[in-house]
Amino acid sequence: xxxxxxxxxxxxxxxxxxxxxxxxxxxxxxxxxxxxxxxxxxxxxxxxxxxxxxxxxxxxxxxxxxxxxxxxxxxxxxxxxxxxxxxxxxxxxxxxxxxxxxxxxxxxxxxxxxxxxxxxxxxxxxxxxxxxxxxxxxxxxxxxxxxxxxxxxxxxxxxxxxxxxxxxxxxxxxxxxxxxxxxxxxxxxxxxxxxxxxxxxxxxxxxxxxxxxxxxxxxxxxxxxxxxxxxxxxxxxxxxxxxxxxxxxxxxxxxxxxxxxxxxxxxxxxxxxxxxxxxxxxxxxxxxxxxxxxxxxxxxxxxx
Amino acid sequence: xxxxxxxxxxxxxxxxxxxxxxxxxxxxxxxxxxxxxxxxxxxxxxxxxxxxxxxxxxxxxxxxxxxxxxxxxxxxxxxxxxxxxxxxxxxxxxxxxxxxxxxxxxxxxxxxxxxxxxxxxxxxxxxxxxxxxxxxxxxxxxxxxxxxxxxxxxxxxxxxxxxxxxxxxxxxxxxxxxxxxxxxxxxxxxxxxxxxxxxxxxxxxxxxxxxxxxxxxxxxxxxxxxxxxxxxxxxxxxxxxxxxxxxxxxxxxxxxxxxxxxxxxxxxxxxxxxxxxxxxxxxxxxx
Lengths: 304, 287
Fold this sequence. Notes:
The structure holds 2 protein chains of 2 kinds. By secondary structure, chain A is an alpha+beta fold.
C-alpha cells in the first residue's frame, strides 16, 4: 500500500517510503501526486518529440526523464506523477536524495510554480529566502535560523506560488559534518543522506508553519576574501537577474519550455520583495554574526 | 572566444598557470590598459563544481567523488559539443581516468592542452605557502601518489576533488597522454625566453598573432605589475590563508629557501622526470 505524505501543499501518495516527509494526517480526496516504483523506466527515451537537455536528462511532450548514473531513473509526468526505477541494489536513501531534489523540482515546475535553489525561513508574517551557489553557506544559515527558533519552510528546493508565497516543503535540512560541528549539532543520531557521505538529514520540528508564507526578503549569499560582511541593497531591475540565476535546475526548466512563464514569475516576485546581496568571509564563517545582520536588516526593512 | 572544443591550461599547482592566463587574457584583449586580475576568465576551471552542476543538471554536492569523476568527461563533452562552447580552461587534475576507464579530460571535448612544467624544487616553497603547510609537508605532498586538492569529505568545497598524483606522475600523465594534443611549456622558458615561449604556446592554442601583441601582453603581465595590482585591488583567486598570491615569480628561489635534505628528497623522488625536463644536469645535480 502506498503511504500518504504532504509537501509543497500537495498530497503525495508514494510506493517508496519517504521518511523525510510529513505524513498526511487528514487525506481528502485523491492525492495530488503519485510516486510509483516502476522498473520499466530504464533507458533514455527515444523518438521524435524527445529532446536531450544534458548528458542525463530528456524532455518531451510526455514529460521529463532524469538519469542519475548508478542510482536511479526518474520519469516526471503531467505535474502529478513520478515513476522511479532504482538501479541495481542501490540504497533507497540515495534514491530519495534525487527523488526529493531534482525529480520533485521538475514536478513543481510542471505544476507552474516558480522553483528556486535556496531556502525559505519563516519570519512570522512573511518569510525570507536565502539564495546562492552551492557552497555559499545557505543550508548552514538555515540551520542557524532554526536553532534560533525560526521555522525553515524549505531547504534546497523552494517553490513559490502565483501570489509570491513560499510553500512549506520538506521538513529537513541537508547539513555537512563541518557545518553541524560549527552549529554544535550532534550528528551521531542523524541519518546520513547517503551511506558513505558526511552529510546528514537534520529533521526540522514538525512543521510549525503549514500554510504558504509571503516572501518579503531575499538575500543572495556569496563569499569574498575579506574578513567582513558586505550587504548591498538591490533595487528595480537589479532584482530580476538573481532570481533567474538562482532558478532551480535552470537548464531543465528552460528545456521544458517553461521559460516565458518563468520570466514573468521572476518579474512579479522581484517587484514584491526587499533584496540584498550579502557577502561573507570565505573562511572563518561567523554564522551567528550573519544571522544577527540579517535579523537587523529585516527589522529595518519591515514587510511592505 | 573560440569555436567548439576546449583548450586546457594544465599544470601542477604553483607552476605558473595564473601567470600564463594573465598573458593570455592580455593577449586576447589586445589592449594597452592595465589587466584586471579579477576578470581573468579565459574559461573556467575544470574542477569547478558550478560548471559540472550546470551541465549535468543536478547537485554534485549529493554525489560521491567517484560518481563525479564518472560524470566529468560527459559534462565537458556536452558543454563543448552540444552547448557549442570553447574557451581556455585551467586544470590542476592529473590526466587520469575515472573508474569507467574514461579520461576525465574528455578527448572528444578537447582541442588540446598547454601543459606548464616547473622545476619541482621551486614549487616546494610556493606550494607550502599556498597550502599553509611546512616545506617538508610540501615535499611529502609532491611525493604522494594519492595527493589531491579539495579532498574533504566533511563539507562542501566549490572545487571538486582534484587528484594530483605525485609531481612526477602529474607531469608524465599529461605530457605522455596520447589521447589529446599537448604542448609542453617550461616555466623557466616563460622567464628566460618569454617571447618565443609564449608565442609558441599561443600558436598551439590557435592564436597566431603579431609579435608586438605577444610582447605587449607579456609586458602587461610583468611580475612587478601583478604584485602592484594584487596589493592595490586584491586578487580573488588568492587562498584566504595566504597573505599574497604573487610571491616571488623567480626561478631558482629554492637555493635560498630549501634545506639540503629537502633538495635531496625532491631529487630522489623525481630524478627521471627532472632530468627529462632539464632540471638536473647529466650528473644528477640540480641546475
